[in-house]
Amino acid sequence: MFDVQEELKKLPHCPGVYIMHDEKDSIMYVGKAVDLHNRVRSYFRKITGRGPQIDKMVTLISRFEYIVTDSELEALVLENNLIKEHCPKYNTLLKDDKTYPYIKVTVGEDYPRVLFSRQMKKDHSRYFGPYSSAGAVKDTIDLINKLYQLRTCNRNLPRDCGNDRACLNYHIRQCMAPCQGNVSREKYDERVKKALNFLNGSYQDTLKELEQNMNRASENLEFEEAIRYRDLLESVRKIALKQKITDSDGEDKDVIALAADERDAVVQVFFVRDGKLIGREHFYMAHVSGTPREQILLDFVKQFYAGTPFIPRELMLQESIEDIEVIEQWLTRRKGSRVYIKIPKIGYKEKLVELAAKNAMLILSQDKERIRREEGRTIGAVREIAALLGIENVNRMEAYDISNISGFANVGSMVVYEKGKPKRSDYRKFRIRTVSGPDDYACMKEVLTRRFLHGMEEQKVLEDKELEKEFGSFTKFPDLLLMDGGKGQVNIALKVLEELHLNIPVCGMVKDDNHNTRGLYYNNKEIVIDRGSEGFKLITRIQDEAHRFAIEYHRSLRSKAQVKSVLEDIPGVGPSRRKALMRCFKSIEEVRSADIETLAAVDEIPLHIAKGIYEFFHEKKEGV
Length: 624
What we know:
The termini are far apart.
């Protein structure tokens, strides 16, 4: 038995990491401390002002453990690793799985290349970035290769020089073909140097050279060449315009600001490289309820820079955070050179932080508005429907439809909506077994009976709710059944539920003469819905989705039946070969249009049978 008070007495006066567990032994919280004895004991004192989240966490602590470290810096690193590994419920967490792109110049090679990279490695290459847009990185690399005609292949040069012919890039004038010995090492290095200057933001020399080449080609009446230089010139100008100058010191820095309310927090980061704002990104923080702003900012800095491969020379923060000196030491160790954390109060840098804060607040407010609209379309619409019908606690709705053509291949569909959103993993298809001919009521009775009997059988097996995932969606019964139709379909559903002793509300989705949703049929009367309401729009979406799902299933069965009926006439094609063809080809037209090689590539179809299938359709087509 873990005795909290006794264990508190054993805590050492040294730095380390503490880990809080609940009664199920799950990790709830991970923290670091300069003095484990003082920090951990503080949780169990009657202290106010820690915030409701921490107060609640303390009441759930069943036991704690700790790991002693030699320094506060080591504790910081260990804390980050444990948070990343366990994602504790009461730690503020960075919700981000992005890896940022870099431009990599392989200066360690004899003939360097300019490449796209997601990782920054110690491989004697030069890296530029990180950038927030992968598309912008690819566009820049493409432009550099057009400008300076550098190679993109992975050949080992000069060892493989002349071993193979030049690639297409040489012929479209995007490579000087060093693989053919067409360019000296010195001349190639000059182009690489120009590319590096370009990536460092020095565009003027390139712009001047392109303009001179364009004018020279125009004077010589080489108009295609002049157009090529003109297009390159325009592309470079666009790149130059995107690089907004933010500081004259030319340093790498990240500008970090926060916007938060009682439930959510967004951190905005401006990436400044070589004095230029190259991009920005925002990050959502989870588990922030009741957490002070400076703590959210501290948690972001620790978690973000524990995972990113590039660390700038300077971090400009919106407000001061705890343990700045320790964080600076940690970042310096990770970068390999001095890193500074600053909180600007005046001047241009303060304005830049303020701009980041405004962007964070804008994202937070826009996100709240988007969530509000989404909730109106989903949860709000469900509440409208429930209120209209006088039903409480509607969460899961199931809608059913029947599809056939003159009684051929009767099928049923079941679509599921939870909290107003489609849950496609719970959709189900039914191929009718007991009904032949166009009898939608009988088909619906079979579908509903099979669905609920199946669910009842699974529920009998289930003793542990954790097993529910293994049994699919039938174990969950709906709060509301929606039938594609009016009184007749509703009565069929009610009869099935009565026979199975189930009490589930049933509602019919009634359509007008133009096959558009008109209203709901419930408790033997039709209920008119406001056509402009979110509830009406949701009913329409559900009805259309049930119909679409049934029609698609019916269409696939018709297609397979068509293939099967025609294939039965081909000599040498028996049941197993018909199935093999039906697995590979969706329709008879696909089989008809396939050549012999494609047919022979199908499992169980030898070459002579493939020839027979091809000749069957070919001769038949010619004879038409």
